[in-house]
Amino acid sequence: MAYVGTQLGVSVLVLFCTMAPSPGQAYIYAHYSNMTSMLFEDLPALFGPPLPKDGLMGVLVEARPQNACMPIDPPPVSPTPSDPNSTTKYIVLIRRYDCNFDIKVLHAQQAGFSAAIVHNMYSNSLLSMGYSNDTIMEEIEIPSVFTSYYASQILRSFIIPEKGAYVILKPEFSFPLSYYLIPFTGVVSMIFIVMVIILIVRCVQHRKRLRKNRLSKEQLKKIPTHKFVKGDNYDVCAICLDEYEEGDKLRVLPCSHAYHCRCVDPWLTQTKKTCPVCKQRVTRPNPEYSESSDSDGESGPHEEEEGATSEADSERTPLLRPSNPASSSPPPTYSSTVTSEAAVATVTTSALHDEYYSPIEDSEEGTDDDSDTTELMGRGAVRV
């Protein structure tokens, strides 16, 4: 996924680098009479090179002939062999009509001008100048713009006659929406993908934790059930608080607590795999934990004798004991096969049910039960 994020970042960077703003229109900055300036709108031509980003400054000269449909006079001063590094640039003002725009600009280029301004006649509307011949268009190497008739009158009256006056042709770059939208969309998409990945990882981790704390359907089927008969030691379901009736199907947990199957099954499969009352696990603990417990038990007989009394009275020891306290053997586990005539679960050996264990075996495992709830709600144990 890191590789994908890197590729997205590179793509966004390429978009930023390759997308350049396109010039929509340009301006003519006319400077004269002690830095007095005027601004005129114009449109760049559809042929020839674009205007430099920093603009093009030069002295304005009117074309002769004005329509530039034939070769025109060169600028008054041009670079000479004695001054080849002269930086003075000249811009020619050309009248519209009589021939195509590309021909007018080509004649200005051949005369030595650095740029051309073509103005409208008796109209202030602007248009984008096109070309009529591909061969001529490919020969044009100077930029050109189209301006209004009003601008030509001002330029002809104030700029051309005055010594020291000059004009600057500067493009105005329009930034299209896609120039900002595409990189922004790429960045937002990359952030969204990262957030989705994090969310999926968190959900998977949460599902694993829930699955670890819940009982599977296969494990649930191994817990014995008992059909209630009057006279049993079970009287009230601690979950729904309803008294058991003849024929109710009960789920008997290894801790000897019984509940309605319809009540305890959702608890075991959707919440926790522990007894709702005494909080003891209904499955054996982790084998690693069992091994560590066994190794602790083999530390010595003296430690076992000293810990016997404290273990019996430990606060983690279940408060509910089997109904036959005199028996020293661990409470038996129950198989899923039940005889309705005797109304008690068939006793089997613990070897047949490795998935379960007695409460005494799990006395060292930490529990978070509420003692008051256990004392008030726990009832009886299974008869043997």
Would you mind describing this structure in some detail?
It is built from ten helices and twelve strands. With 384 residues, it is an alpha+beta fold. It has two domains: 22-174, Glucose Oxidase, domain 1; 213-294 and 320-377, Herpes Virus-1 (2-Layer Sandwich), CATH 3.30.40.10. The strands form three sheets. The protein has a seven-stranded mixed β-barrel. The chain has a three-stranded antiparallel β-sheet with strand order 8-9-10. It has a two-stranded antiparallel ribbon with strand order 11-12. A hairpin with a 3-residue loop joins strand 1 (22-32) and strand 2 (36-44). Helix 1 packs antiparallel against helix 5. The longest helix is centred in the middle third of the chain and has 37 residues, at 177-213. The radius of gyration is 48 Å and the shape is rod-shaped.
Which helices and strands occur, and which strands form pairs?
Blueprint (H helix, E strand, L loop, with lengths): L1 H17 L3 E11 L3 E9 L11 E7 L27 E6 L5 H11 L3 E5 L14 H6 L4 E4 L1 H11 L6 E9 L2 H37 L3 H5 L3 E3 L21 E4 L5 E3 H10 L16 H11 L3 H12 L20 E7 L4 E5 L22 H7 L7
Parallel strand pairs: 3-4, 4-5, 5-6
Antiparallel strand pairs: 1-2, 1-7, 2-6, 3-7, 8-9, 9-10, 11-12
Helix pairs in contact: 1-5
Family: Belongs to the Godzilla family.
Enzyme class: transferase
Protein name: E3 ubiquitin-protein ligase RNF167
